[in-house]
Amino acid sequence: MQQRQLGPFSVSAIGLGCMNICHAYGTPISQEEAGRVLLAALDAGVTHFDTAALYGFGVSETLVGQFLSRHRSQFTLASKCGMTGVPNEQGVKVRVIDGRPATIKATCEEALQRLRTDVIDLYYLHRWDKKVPIEDSVGALADLVREGKIRSIGLSEVSAATLRRAHAVHPIAALQTEYSLWSRNAEIAVLAACKELGVSFVAFSPVARGFLCGAPLDVTAFDAKDIRRAMPRFSPENYAKNQALLPAYHAIAAEVGCTPAQLALAWLLHQGPHILPIVGTRSADHLKDGLGALSVQLPASVLAQLDALINSQTVHGDRYNAQANSEVDTEVF
Ligand SMILES: NC(=O)c1ccc[n+]([C@@H]2O[C@H](COP(=O)([O-])OP(=O)(O)OC[C@H]3O[C@@H](n4cnc5c(N)ncnc54)[C@H](OP(=O)(O)O)[C@@H]3O)[C@@H](O)[C@H]2O)c1
Q1: Average pLDDT over residues 14-31
Q2: CB 241 within 8 A of CB 314
Q3: Relative to the CA of 286, which ligand 1 atom is closest?
């Protein structure tokens, strides 16, 4: 398995996103099926597992702990704090962004229990809580490093400016942000800032949440809880226009001799050695397919064809709706 550097850790060049084993897209899978995907990933040589307190409000971390803790020395464990499920007045858990130092430390304690480990290798602030100076949230994470509860610090969906402020408080090992052919915001400033500061860039939603995989999706049949329902690009109106890009995209994949998902991942791997995609899937077969991207070589002419076909000008609809957009740090992306 090809390796890339994730902060101080050498890990498989493609990691597994563990949101999908309990949350987000399509029909939910059973605990046993989740365990099969996690162990298949480990068997295939994946050594970078990405989870968060948010995913299933603790369920993803619990499943990772349940199935992988006995293999703990074989992989790099990344999780996230700063966005969790908090009971509302009716006792129903709702998503809350809270980057206060005390909350970060309490979330870490709970995560260590759920993950059945005594240290998390890479702990991200999932969203910058704009009510709390980034220096204070990163200061709390630096305390956790000193206490030996986490080994390194990451940030998610922050601007280059915020990354620099955070990096001045404590070295940032990794920045995680959406990046794929159809989500190019990171190209404005964040990718260059990561390269300059020696920060690994973890690309989430690398296969465009299913858009760049195989047959077009039926966006009118999404499950009631599917998070793509709230994403403008997947609205029936925008998706119909976006879908028109797929025949040419599939033709390029056929010409290269790879699958569409492999093409999306290979394009990312070719953007720079500091970029590490994490693919999300509920299927061991889909994971195996994605890992095939590691042997796909794309000549400059194909990279140029892909860049011209799918980019911020040719894609219809924002990646997030207004609420979710207000939660990310887009000041100087
Ligand atoms: N930091 C953040 O704010 C943030 C936000 C979102 C996600 N993430 C992380 O990034 C990870 C990956 O992102 P993501 O899941 O949003 O997007 P993604 O990996 O781009 O797409 C996942 C979707 O693509 C499908 N898929 C994946 N590989 C496939 C293949 N080879 N063939 C056919 N379909 C395939 C999956 O369906 P199947 O399940 O059927 O395979 C799923 O519907 C998450 O698990 C999570 O860890 C982080």
Answers
A1: 93
A2: no
A3: 31
**302 Cβ below 6 A of ligand 1:** no
**260 CB under 6 A from ligand 1?**
no
Nearest CA to ligand 1 atom 36: 281
Q: Where are the domains of the chain?
A: 3-327
Q: Does any ligand 1 atom lie closer than 6 A to the CB of residue 114?
A: no
Q: What would the CATH number be for the domain defined by 3-327?
A: 3.20.20.100
User: Which residues carry out catalysis?
Assistant: 55
What is the DSSP code string of 80-118?
EESEEEEE-TTS-EEEEE---HHHHHHHHHHHHHHHT-S
| pLDDT of 332 above 80 | no
For 44, 81, 91, the CA distances from 87, given in Å and listed in that order, are: 38, 16, 5
The H-or-E segment that residue 241 falls in is: helix 236-243
Residue 327 binned pLDDT confidence (cut-offs 50, 70, 90): confident
Nearest CA to ligand 1 atom 12: 280
Q: What is the pTM of this model?
A: 0.97
